[in-house]
Amino acid sequence: MRKNSVKNTRVNGEVQRVLAEIIRGEIKDPRIHPFTSVVAVEVAPDLKTCKAWISVLGDEQARTDTYKGLKSAEGYIKNQLAKKINLRNTPEITFIMDQSIEYGVNMSKKIDEVMEGISRDSEENGNEEISNED
Predict the structure, then answer these.
(1) Do residues 43 and 69 make contact, with C-beta atoms less than 8 angstroms apart?
(2) Where are the beta strands (DSSP E) in 2-67?
(3) Could you report the per-residue pLDDT of 77-90, keeping only the tens digit for each?
(4) DSSP class of 5
């Protein structure tokens, strides 16, 4: 199976869906933040290893705690993955913390602040022009 084949893409999508389901609904570890999402999954063509990019919407402490919780639940996650997906081999999962969602939220906030400032400035300038015409 080649890296970008249709089969590999389907396996990646299915592993991502099931992994998100397991993390969201089945793990009872309090260290895992409720706003944890599986951003992407890349399963090796030989189905032996898997990289899972995990994003946590929260502070650095929440990310650290979530990572530790996922590492300790690795065996359980692999076991559940094997039960739910019928693959020749169940891959060893490597969790990688991804900050893209948080980055996007921060950029959106900054854009909103700039747009607010621009609209405030245009309102102030518009009011000054009207008062100067008198």
Answers:
(1) no
(2) 36-43, 49-56
(3) 999 999 999 888 88
(4) S
